[in-house]
Design a protein that fits this description.
mainly beta
Length: 93
């Protein structure tokens, strides 16, 4: 589920994604638990002459939930990334 608000100058959103457990497994395969990720982002746009600047902040897995993709060959050794925040400036001309 995602909730998003946009104006000409800014965009903001919050999203929740739930992945169910997988317990119907083949012999020798391990089940995976369910997990829910909370993500959010915000971006602000400025225009100067013929350039557009965008300042942004992205937050992923903000609750630091452990998640594993059941179909991944690496699921037992490499879970999905924990919480992380990315900030940046994007210039378009």
């Amino acid at each position: 589920m995602r909730l998003e608000q946009k104006t000409p100058a800014w965009t903001a959103s919050i999203a929740v994604g739930h992945h169910g457990e997988q317990d119907r497994v083949a012999p020798g395969e391990f089940p995976t638990n369910s997990y829910t990720f909370l993500n959010a982002d915000f971006a602000y746009r400025l225009e100067f002459e013929r350039t557009e600047w965008e300042i942004f902040v992205l937050g992923k897995n903000l609750t630091d939930e452990e998640g594993r993709v059941h179909s991944s060959l690496l699921k037992d050794v490499a879970p999905l990334p924990g919480w992380n925040i990315t900030t940046g400036i994007r210039l378009s001309f």
